[in-house]
């Protein structure tokens, strides 16, 4: 028997800003005052402590959210209006970079292990291959392919509720990894065994270590 409630009724859809505003309480002063158009010294400290960020972009084929990570401070605060993000080795899809060529607007979400608050940065990015800049970000003699220069528009910290509800850092510290399909298993299933499989999984750790930079 079909579920008559599976299709949402238009009566229950929010379709206007007025409806949305009526759904929520007024914004508190702290939520407004925490947003600034530059990198405050306290926000700089959070960026320099973060080993992981999510980069959001938009392109002709839709949206993209891509993980970025390295030693804490890998995204450099050049000045209070500029961030520098080296493009390290990945899968060569370069979805984020293609999107930036289409629409320079980007968003960054910084996470800091053990800290509930996250940091959000919105701005616009350009892609640089300036030799001196690439060399500045070289690791073990290996320079990134390019560096994103991000002009900052807004910066603010996000409260810890999502991290608290998810128990993200407590789970990471105390629980065994969740048993999930391996990359090789996923690839084999999606490609009808053209790629992936047990050998992919067994070779993956060494390949990742050899291609970090």
TrEMBL record:
<dbReference type="InterPro" id="IPR024029">
    <property type="entry name" value="Pyridox_Oxase_FMN-dep"/>
</dbReference>
<dbReference type="Pfam" id="PF01243">
    <property type="entry name" value="PNPOx_N"/>
</dbReference>
<dbReference type="InterPro" id="IPR011576">
    <property type="entry name" value="Pyridox_Oxase_N"/>
</dbReference>
<dbReference type="InterPro" id="IPR012349">
    <property type="entry name" value="Split_barrel_FMN-bd"/>
</dbReference>
<protein>
    <recommendedName>
        <fullName>Pyridoxamine 5'-phosphate oxidase N-terminal domain-containing protein</fullName>
    </recommendedName>
</protein>
<feature type="domain" description="Pyridoxamine 5'-phosphate oxidase N-terminal">
    <location>
        <begin position="40"/>
        <end position="159"/>
    </location>
</feature>
């Amino acid at each position: 028997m079909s579920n008559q409630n599976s299709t949402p009724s238009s009566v229950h859809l929010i379709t206007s800003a007025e409806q949305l505003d009526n759904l929520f309480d007024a914004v508190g002063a702290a939520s407004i005052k925490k947003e600034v158009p530059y990198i405050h010294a306290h926000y700089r400290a959070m960026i320099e402590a973060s080993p992981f960020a999510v980069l959001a972009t938009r392109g002709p084929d839709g949206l993209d959210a891509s993980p970025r990570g390295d030693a804490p401070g890998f995204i450099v605060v050049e000045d209070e209006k500029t961030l520098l993000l080296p493009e390290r080795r990945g899968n060569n899809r370069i979805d984020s970079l293609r999107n930036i060529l289409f629409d320079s607007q980007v968003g960054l979400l910084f996470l800091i292990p053990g800290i509930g608050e996250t940091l959000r940065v919105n701005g616009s990015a350009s892609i640089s291959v300036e030799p001196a800049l690439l060399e500045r970000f070289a690791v073990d003699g290996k320079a990134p392919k390019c560096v994103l220069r991000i002009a900052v528009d807004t910066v603010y910290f996000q409260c810890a509720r999502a991290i608290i509800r998810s128990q993200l850092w407590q789970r990471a510290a105390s629980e065994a990894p969740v048993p999930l399909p391996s990359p090789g298993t996923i690839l084999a299933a999606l490609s009808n065994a053209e790629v992936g499989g047990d050998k992919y999984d067994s070779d993956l750790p060494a390949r990742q270590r050899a291609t970090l930079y």
